[in-house]
Structure formats: C-alpha cells, structure tokens
Amino acid sequence: MLGWDETIFRSEEVFDPDFLPEVLLHREQQLNQLTANIMPALRSSSPVHTLCLGPPATGKTSTVRYVLSQLGDTVERVYIRCPALGTPYKIMSRVFESVCRHQAPQAGIAYTKLFEKTMEKLDKPLILVFDDVNFISVDIVNELLYLFLKAPEEYGVKLGIIATATDVKFPLALSPEVGAVFHYSTVHYPLYGYEEMKDILRWRVERGFVEGAFSDEAFERVVELASDSGDLRFGIYLLRAAGLNAERRGSRRVEPQDVEAVYTGGAKVFLAKTVSALNSDEREVLKIVYLLDEEVAAGDLYRFFQKEVGMSYQRFYEILNKLERLRLVDFIFDKKGRGRTRYIYKRCDADVVLEALREF
Ligand SMILES: Nc1ncnc2c1ncn2[C@@H]1O[C@H](COP(=O)(O)OP(=O)(O)OP(=O)(O)O)[C@@H](O)[C@H]1O
Ligand SMILES: [Mg+2]
Questions:
Q1: Which of 2, 157, 159, 183 is the most exposed place for a label (fewest CB within 10 A)?
Q2: Which atom of ligand 1 is nearest to the CA of 203?
Q3: What's the pTM?
Q4: What CATH number should be reported for the domain whose range is 12-18+204-275?
Q5: What are 46-96's pLDDT values in tens digits?
Q6: 59 CA to centre of ligand 1 in angstroms
Q7: Nearest protein Cα to ligand 1, atom 26
Q8: If you measure from the C-alpha of residue 303 to the centroid of ligand 2, how many angstroms do you get, rounded to a whole number?
Q9: From atom 29 of ligand 1, which residue's Cα is the shortest distance away?
C-alpha cells in the first residue's frame, strides 16, 4: 500500500500541457529545418519565414519553443499564442512590450502607432511567432502579416515570421497582397505513428514516475489509446490521470484498470476539443455521419450535401479528409461492390460526438 504522504510520481510537471521536454523525439527533420531558417538572424541577416503545418499535438509549438530557447540574446523573439490574444491591439502590445521593455498603454493609441514605435526601437533581428494562427480571424492575420512583412523595407529591420496552423489550407486564406510579400518555407508535421508515440510516452514515464510504478500492461494500453485517437496529448493526459487514479486507490503501481477508469471521461474532453475547433460545414458533415445508423458511401453522402447545402464536390471531399485526419471518421474501401466505393464509418462513440456537437 502507498502511504498517504507517498507518491508514485518522480516529477509530475513532465505531464503539464506546457512542459517543454529537453528532447523532442522523431522531430529531427523539423528541428533542423526550423534552425536553418532562423540561423541567418544569428548572423544579423534576414531569417526565412516559416509556416509549420500539421494536425493537433504533432509538436509544432514544442519544436518552435525549443529552437527559440536555444537562441542567445543577439536575437529578439516574441511568442504570440493567437487564440489568447485575439485582437491586433493585444498582439501588437505584446510585441511592443517585448521589444521596448515597458508596458503598452491600455488604450487611446492606434495599434499601428505601437507598431511604429516598436520598429523604431528594434536594434536586433526579430523572430515573431504566431502560434495557432488559424484561430484568429483571417482579416486580422492578413492585416498584421502585411504590416510586419513590409517592415524590413520601411524600417530597415531584420524580421522573420514563424506561423503554426493545424489547417493545411491556411495559406489559401492569405490575401493576394500578403501572398505577394510572404515567401515562406513550409515545415510539415505528420501524425506520430504507433512506435513514435510509444517512444515519446516512454520518455515521459521514465521521467515522471518512480521506477517500476507504471506497469508494462498499463503503458501498452495508453499507447494503444493514444495512437487510436491520433492524439499524443491524450496519451500524456492518460499517463498522469492513470497515475493519480492508482494513488487514489493507494496502489504503488499503475495497472490497466487505472487507465480504463480515466479513459472514458478523458476521451470526452479531448473529443469535445477537436469538435469545437471545426467550422460549421465540417460540423454539419460530421453530424450527418453520426446521425446515420450505418456506414454510408461517400458518393451518397455527397449527393445529399449537394442537394441540401449546395456544397461543392471539392469542398465536401476536403472536409471528409480532414475528419479522417482528425480520427473522427474512418474510410473503408469496398472491394466487392461496384468499383472502389469508399464507405465512411464512425470512429468514436456516437453519443459522445453528438453531445460535443450540441455543446460547442
Ligand atoms: N517529439 C516530441 N517529443 C516529446 N514530446 C512531444 C513531442 N511532440 C509533442 N510532444 C508533446 O505533445 C504535446 C503536444 O505538442 P505540441 O503542443 O507541440 O503540439 P502542436 O502541434 O503545437 O499542437 P496544436 O496544433 O494542438 O497546438 C505536448 O505536451 C508536447 O510536449
Ligand atoms: Mg501548438
């Protein structure tokens, strides 16, 4: 039995959502690309703008933060988490405060004025990170990007933009004006495979738990659940939650029963997050798939959307592919029937998905 003042955790913070591990496994290529793009800043020349694209929990934020943390103080860097700072004024205040090192006025001044002051003050190359850029309105993105991209010309500053997005279509949202000046290199972040997730999760177990506290069987189950959902973050969450569950029942070892006990509730929360990030067309398609009793042929479903919503063929297939990438639906090709008909299957619990659609 585990005493009331004992713990099976060696270091619980390795499971925190914003914990930055010292090693990012299976992301060598992305780290190299990011480093190479930023490198010119260290030589006081212009960094290469970079767009990091990939599904949730594929290491975009972590790799960018890691590379920034390795830079010395010859480079100015500003990290902006876009969903948290949704307005141009708030974003510009953050940039102003980092560069000018004093507080921006709360109001009474145009954000373009803050921008001017920042650029005049800037005496080092600047790396500007727009993390989760697809979570703010595209008009704001275009406005801000245009302003910053023109700065080298107007103020003689060196400036590199790193933007991350989960939506691979993000570049299409950029205005022609921005497109004309935004020349970037793209870094792709594919989903982690089963073995990759296993390596990453094992590292957390070794760092986070007392030796032997996490049973192999329980660990296997976490890896399986994480890789089924395609969400590494879910795996990290399960490790900690299962650990806490084992402690609650006074056990020195995390067993599969602990994983099962925290799985359902956790799956709901994670699914709700994915669903809440979908746009209205995507939600509509997801809803219909989950309202149907059986699997449906992609073509039949398309005909429905064409008739009811007037959705284009291309748009419809883009949505289906996205839902598949997010592990919300599965495709199965029917080889018996006529040609290669693609059937769409529900991948998650229908009640949970429909509830998430209602709530968000
Ligand atoms: N290669 C890796 N090695 C170790 N941990 C990783 C790795 N990639 C991601 N993680 C961990 O997975 C979680 C999600 O990673 P991160 O926040 O970087 O993903 P993201 O691509 O930015 O996701 P989102 O699109 O949702 O913002 C974090 O807890 C992070 O520490
Ligand atoms: Mg991120």
A1: 183
A2: 4
A3: 0.83
A4: 1.10.8
A5: 999 999 999 889 999 999 999 999 998 999 999 999 877 878 999 999 999
A6: 4
A7: 56
A8: 36
A9: 17
The pLDDT assigned to 86 comes to 78
Residue 75 structure tokens: 């480079």
If you search the block for the tokens 């949202």, which residue do you land on? 173
**119 CB under 6 A from ligand 1?**
no
CB atoms within 10 A of CB 43: 11
The token pair at 209 is: 């738990």
Q: How far is CA 146 from CA 135, 139, 164, 177, 230, in A?
A: 18, 11, 17, 7, 35
DSSP for 65-80 reads HHHHHT--TTSEEEEE
56 lines ligand 1 (CB under 6 A): yes
Q: What is the pLDDT of residues 254-273, one digit of tens each?
A: 999 999 999 987 888 888 87
Q: Any idea where the domains of the chain sit in the sequence? A: 12-18+204-275, 28-188, 278-359
**Confidence band of 137 (pLDDT split at 50, 70, 90):** confident
* 28-188 classified as CATH 2.60.120.10: no
Question: What is the C-alpha to C-alpha distance for residues 89 and 125, in angstroms, rounded to an integer?
Answer: 22
CA separation for the pair 60, 314 (Å, rounded): 28
Radius of gyration of the chain (CA): 23
Is 113:43 a contact under the CB 8 Å cutoff?
no
Q: How far is CA 294 from CA 102, 229, 333, 344, 345, in A?
A: 60, 21, 15, 9, 8
CB of 62 shorter than 6 A to ligand 1: yes
- Gap from CA of 7 to ligand 1 centroid (Å): 26
The finding on whether 233 has its CB within 6 A of some atom of ligand 1 is yes
Closest CA to 316 of 337, 286, 295: 286
What separation in Å is there between the alpha carbon of 202 and the centre of ligand 2? 21
In the reported structure, the alpha carbon of residue 233 is separated from the centroid of ligand 1 by a whole-number distance in angstroms of: 7
User: What dotted CATH number matches 278-359?
Assistant: 1.10.10.10
